[in-house]
Each structure stands twice: as C-alpha cells, then as structure tokens.
Amino acid sequence: MAISALLASQACPLLTAGRASVPAALPRSGVYSGVGATVAPGYLIRGRVATAATGGSVIDRPTIAVPGIDKSNETQKKKPRIYRVMLHNDTFNKREYVVQVLLKVVKSITVDDAVNVMQEAHQNGLACVIACAQEEAELYCEGLRNNGLISSVEPDGSGSGNGDSS
C-alpha cells in the first residue's frame, strides 16, 4: 500500500501525504511518526509547531530555555585536593593482622593490594594505602589507628587537585 493511500485511510493529520520519509527498513504497514517525518503546518508535535512558511517541519528534540539561567557562565566545581593515607611500619603487629585491618577499614582495597601495602610498609617503613579526598582520608586514618596501626595523612604531591597550598 502506498504511503499516501495509507495516510488517507488512517486520516492522520500529523503527516502530509507524499512528504513522509519512511526508512526502508521499517514496515510500511503502519503510520510512521518518528524523526524525519514531515508534519502539516500548524500541528503541534513534541512541543514544536510546524510553520506555514516552509509547508512542514522536521520533528526533532525541543529546546527548553529556562529564564534567568545562563548555561555558558555556570560555575565549575573544583576537584577536592587529594590526600594520601600512609601506613607506618611497627614491630608489634603481625603481618596477617595488618592485612586484615586494611581489608576491614578500606573497603575498596583488594587482598593483593593489602598484602602489597603491608609488605612495602614492612620493607621501606612507610607505604601509601589509598589516595582520596581529605575527609575520607582522615576517616581511613582514624580507622587504622583505632585498630592499633600507625598511620598518617599527608597531601598528595603529584599536583592533582585544585592546587591549593594550604
């Protein structure tokens, strides 16, 4: 069945006869009103009105303008400064206990990472457990200390974050 005959039989005011663009992959048994269809002037389709000057309009996403909000001058959020949670070597905690505490306090750390952190602290005297925002780093440090480990928080010196020197 031809599109114009289908439109006439369906009495669809949204599509004009002979102007609908139906993709070849779609079956021609129904009325197509998707993107690319041409509408009759004066009809409201998804928030847009077809104009009489062009004889039709292509259906597309409507733009919504909110008065008083200028999107070009929005303030951008600065990334929080990154801090490192440092684990210090001690002589009174067993290595297995250190790994257990790391896994309990820092939920995002894997067993392999916890073993590597413990081993680095044991060999070098100091190891970085995790690098994160200051508030989160202080919580991790407090959790490690509450479980008998020696830990500290220091600013990350890699230059990430917003660059404040406080």
Automatic annotation (TrEMBL):
<dbReference type="GO" id="GO:0030163">
    <property type="term" value="P:protein catabolic process"/>
</dbReference>
<protein>
    <recommendedName>
        <fullName>Adaptor protein ClpS core domain-containing protein</fullName>
    </recommendedName>
</protein>
<dbReference type="InterPro" id="IPR003769">
    <property type="entry name" value="ClpS_core"/>
</dbReference>
<dbReference type="InterPro" id="IPR022935">
    <property type="entry name" value="ClpS"/>
</dbReference>
<dbReference type="GO" id="GO:0006508">
    <property type="term" value="P:proteolysis"/>
</dbReference>
<dbReference type="Pfam" id="PF02617">
    <property type="entry name" value="ClpS"/>
</dbReference>
<feature type="domain" description="Adaptor protein ClpS core">
    <location>
        <begin position="78"/>
        <end position="146"/>
    </location>
</feature>
<dbReference type="InterPro" id="IPR014719">
    <property type="entry name" value="Ribosomal_bL12_C/ClpS-like"/>
</dbReference>
